[in-house]
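anyone seen this seq b4? input:
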Amino acid sequence: MSSFGEGIQMTPLQLGALASSIANGGTLYYLQYPRTADEKANFIPRIKRNLNIEALLPEVRDGMLAAVLYGTARLSYISTDEQALGKTGTCSEDGSRLGWFVSYADQSHPKIVLVVLMRGHSSAIKGPMAAGVAGRIYRKLNDENYFATHSAEARTPALVAGSRQ
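predicted toks r here
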């Protein structure tokens, strides 16, 4: 978690996979995209590697929670037990801007990883704006009882593109 990431290249899905490993205690999964109903029904997460990060996770999670409660990610805040933890980022070069936000919810039984990436030429494109988009998504999921209906599952969030777990 640093403020300067010059030279780092990562797709939003890779960033989501990293957030998933923070949420689940250090397991990095292969990114998979089940395309049919049968593939979804028979989906099995595949472990890519186990990261030795458990000792670092309490501080990282505290920082991600503080970003949501008090910092640049506060527009993602949802006032439930399923509070998201997240990290924002803003990059600019030659008039083009990126604003991103990566997060997972809920803290005790992670169920979903969300990555919002915004790109444009407006100075409004920033990480906090992406966090606001994520906040609207989380609040909509909460209004639809997504977290309540998935609470019994308590699965480790393996990132699956295009699939709500």
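The domain at 12-150 is CATH 3.40.710.10 (Beta-lactamase). Helices lie at 12-24, 37-41, 57-70, 127-143, 146-150. kinda curious what u guys think
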